[in-house]
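SAMPLE LOG
Freezer: B-3
Tube label: C17
Construct: single chain, 416 aa
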Amino acid sequence: MLVGLSLGTGSPQEYLSEISVDHPAIRYFDSAADNPVDRFSKQLESGKVRLDLRSGELGYLPSLLHQFDINVDTQALVFSKTSFQAPKISPTNPRAIYFNDDVAVAYVRGSDEIEIAATDAKQGVAFYTASLKSLPKSGFNRQEICLKCHQGPATSGVPGIFIGSVFPGPLGTPARGESAIITDHRTAFEDRWGGWYINAKRGQPKDRSNRVASNPADPEVLDEFEGNQNLTNLFGRFKPEGYLATQSDIIALMTFEHQTQMTNYLTRVGWEARISAHAEKSGGRPIPQLESDIEALVAYMLFADEVVLKDPIEGVSTFTKTFPQRGPRDRRGRSLRDFDLRTRLFRYPLSYLIYSPAFDALPDAVREQIYQRLYDVLSGKDKREKFARLSPSDRRAILEIVRETKPTVPAYWKPN
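STRUCTURE (predicted):
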């Protein structure tokens, strides 16, 4: 949910070409919306659900998060002016982002407008705004203008969310030029989180967070001072009144980083498959990049290029407990949501979005191809160096977990 970034090339994230939202096989704006915001809006209008107004700055935000089943401990705080609400954002008034698997909500203290991004299983991410104080009456407003920044190379060429890293000035204004990058689990830590607050109890890698570039002569040199790493709180950085929590947990943001680009990959591959099928029916040629994009998606799902943690890390919130509780779990109690946090983010490195509606909504042939490629790697048939980090025990555990927790897994995944 970041906007206004001029993208550099300091990240291994692939900046992919844009796919037309108006293609007859896609019709992004013309197709009926089917996402959590759309479904909740219909319930709200019919009176099946209601929102409770809290006095003060927060308005309907706490009740809205509750309805979307979004935990407060997902809060991530960004203080760079990289939103259409930029004038209200600063290091003393950061924007708070809350998320679950398919909805992200952004709140700026002092603003009556909140931003919501919701994932449609087939169409990708749709963007909305809503009034913090009059939401039940005014409803959700879908915003086409958001695609000016939320569809392009940063989002794998489809409507999506991304995490940006900038060099912010003292007021949060990003430096001009090519220094802004998009980050995910493949990005070197020293390039991550410029313009974000990060809290960690221990093990925080050296990164761009919690700092500004105060010297106008060196706008891409962040201030160095003691106490910037492993901040357990943000006291003195901003006043906490008007926020649901005071922390910006490192594990929550790392999880959201992975999720943003995973969702974008799923959307892209689904769109390409539909466009290719449409082309073949019309006597044209399928998209040649589909095969390579499926390979990229599989590698991303398996965290093949994940940056290794040099030290164990520990967050400051309950996120490391509440996120794994969302399951599902196999008979031995294992889940793809279990964290490792010693050398990598997850204990069993296969994306939990394999359980998402977006994965299940992929065209059958593409979903089967992804299943086959995953099985080739996890069964040991694919022995390429790219997947060498996956030990035999990792592969076996992931196979066992998915077999027991994903009912639609192909029959050849099951043991004889």
